[in-house]
Design goal:
Elements lengths: L5 E7 L3 H12 L7 E6 L6 H11 L3 E5 L5 H15 L4 E6 L2 E3 L3 H11 L3 E9 L12 E2 L7 H7 L1 E6 L5 E4 H7 L11 H11 L3 E12 L17 H17 L3 H16 L5 H17 L8
Parallel strand pairs: 1-2, 1-4, 2-3, 6-10
Antiparallel strand pairs: 4-9, 5-10, 6-9, 7-8, 8-10
Amino acid sequence: MIKTKTCAIVVTYNRLVLLKEVVEALLKVDDNLDKIIVINNASTDDTENYLNNISVSNSKVEQYLMSENLGGAGGFYTGLKYAFEQGYDYMWLMDDDSIVTPSSLDYLKEAFEKVDNVGYSCSKVVWTDNKPHVMNIPEVSSKNDNGVAFFEDKGFINVNSCSFVSMLIHRETIKNVGLPYKDFFIWGDDLEYSKRIIKHGYKGLFCEKSLVIHKTAENYSANIQYCKKTEFWKIEYGIRNRTFMYKSFKDYKYIVLYFLLNIYRSLKRKNNKFRALYLVLSSSFKGLFFKPKKQMV
C-alpha cells in the first residue's frame, strides 16, 4: 500500500489558551497524521513564541506566520495552498477552538477508502455538553445516487456542505476545484467551498464516528436576529459572501429568499432594527457585485 501524507491545518488568531488544547489533542492522534501546520494570522498575543518553542521540541508542529491578519478565509486559503505545494495528500481543516479525538482522522479517511469519488469528509461536531453544535451541522443531501442504505451501511451520510471545523480534503479535489476564496475574509468560505466541490461532481460524506468538540463560548449559530451589535461586522461579511455564493451558483431564487429572511430577522430584533436593516440592504447589494478571484493550484 502506498503511504500517503496527511497534515492538519489550524487557522488561529489571538486564541492561545484554546490553541494549546487544539495542538495537544492533535498530538494524540495516531501516526496517520504527519504534520500539524498552524497558520498564525499575525496574532498579537504570545502565539508566535508558543509555536516557535513547541516546533523545536516536536517537529510535527509547524508554524506558518502571516504578515497580516487575512481572516479565517485567507488563513485556510493560505494553508491549503501551502500544504498542496508541500505534497500532502490529505489536508484536515479546523479552527483554533476545535478539539479532535484520537480516532477522528481514521474515520474521516475511511470515507475515501470505502466510497468512490469522495471530495471531502467531515466530522460530527459537538459542543462541550456533547450536544450537536448548531454552527457545524452539515446540509444533508436529498440526492443519493447510490441509495440511502448504501451510505448507512458504510457509516456515512451524503451531504451538500459542511464547515471547516474538521473537514478532510484530498489533493485531487483541490487540483480540480481550486482553493477557497481568500477575499471572503470571514464567514461563508467553508459553505461556498464545500458546495462548490459537490457541484464539481464529488461526494461529501458526514462521518458520525469522527467526533470533534467545538469549544465556542456558547452553542450558537449567529444570525442578524440574535447577534450582538458588536458582531454586526461579521454578519456584514456573511451576508455579502452568501449572496455572492447564490449568484455564482445561479441559485437566483435563494438570493431573494435569503434577502427576505434577513429583512424579517432584522425586524424581529429587540434593538438596533434600523441599523440591522441598513446592514442587510448594503451587504446584499455588495454581494451582487462582489467578484473575488478564483485561485487554482
